[in-house]
Queue: 2 jobs
Job 1
Amino acid sequence: MSNIIKIVDFQAPELDVYARLTEGQLLNRHEPDKGIFIAESPKVIERALDAGCIPISFLMEEKHVKGQGRKLIERCPEISVYTAEFDVLTQLTGFKLTRGMLCAMYRPRLPSAEAVCANARRIAVLENVVNPTNVGAIFRSAAALNMDGILLTPACSNPLYRRAVRVSMGTVFQIPWTILDDGCQWDGEGVRYLHNLGFKTAAMALRDDSIGIDDPELQKEDKLAIILGTEGDGLASNTIRDCDYTVRIPMSHGVDSLNVAAASAVAFWELGKGNRGIGSESL
């Protein structure tokens, strides 16, 4: 039976993990095995549990203990459940966006890049994408539009940051991903690393020599890595130089580019055709 604990004071230490620890403190780079992330909303928490993430505690409105949180609590009978009235919980920044439920969980151990790519035909590679909202949106598009995995350079926003998890709607737990470590020095060596894994590489960039995203040569590639760059500056020039293809999305009305998250959705839809069947579940 879960331990139901009522919180009446916003300053209660049980709320520290939800209200007062920074993303850096939760990440815990010095002791990564003790790193924590926060899952928000019943759907996201469910997807995290389905992926094998280990819960630490729940925080929810009292009404959800016997309501929409009941099945989640039953799945984790040994976990403490902290409850409070809505007016206490709304002192947590953004609580109104959580659908009344939060769950603190241990960060899972990340797989190697080789494991992520082992059976993949289409992967996304994020180069220094620093906005967690964009990272979350890219994950949601990748999961929905037939990508098999995602690799991120170390300078990217972490996919388990709270906002990224929320924006992704929990798809960060449904698609294989990892952060490229020091074994792959991305700057200058990254594209070669992808080639060694068997991928042809497509840099999404605005260049005069770019080919259209609907070029039939791209569809013919058995294994393709779609590389997207940081907000504003885009991909590094040496990344573009080393790629097999430079690809652009045709624009109209004088618009020169799309936000990286929007561009990813277009790219994944077009370049993921014929990869895997689209699931029936709404993301």
Job 2
Amino acid sequence: MKRVLLTVAYDGTAYHGWQVQKNGETIESVLNRQLSALFQEPIRVIGASRTDSGVHALGNVAVFDTSSRMPADRISYALNQWLPLDIRIQDSIQVEDDFHPRKAACTKYYEYLILNREFELPHLRLNAHFLRRKLDVKRMQEACPYFLGEHDFKSFCSIHTQAESTVRTIYSLTVEEAEGLIRIRVSGNGFLYNMVRILAGTLIEIGQGEREPEELQGILEARDRQAAGPTAPARGLTLLGMVYEGEKREKSGEIFKFSLDTRGLV
């Protein structure tokens, strides 16, 4: 038996999120089904980030255990032959048997795209939130420093969150615009349910002049979901990937510890 780590990219448009659900197809259910068929044994993956319905990923992480003798680095090639075109494995490696993608320390990277122009662009319709009303990017940039560092982000998570703590640390947050496409990029040690989408929705209100950047300090201190802005649509959000830091040691071809960067930055 060995544990294999997959780096997974997907277009989340057609799926009810990552986690297995009774009411629709999910990324996890597809991986479980196709891996079980490929290896002819029951397979259940463990995902690093349980993205919401309609959210995309370039570098999500999942692990599974298998008794297959297929080399870990060949599994990505074999599995891609079984998967639909909107899910693609980017890499597969063997990891230590007790590695857990949600319990190991890592930095996660997200991007929220806003198409801010007079007319929509068809090729971005599934992965960018379209807004015709002009946003003031400079105001949005002025708001970014308020998010940095460790804060209680209870104002920026869904009331349905099951997290034991709403304290998280944001390492970086940037807002850049080029030819009408605004990219909000954020990294941190973890994100709450809907946190990035609420953060984006609040920045949009600031860009529209409906809030002032300095209001963010009070919003954070309020620890009240009603104090922050709306939850931006799921289609604009992409999990770029994550970075796990560790010591890499190899013995007889087996990987015990590793450093892994799954970011699909474009």
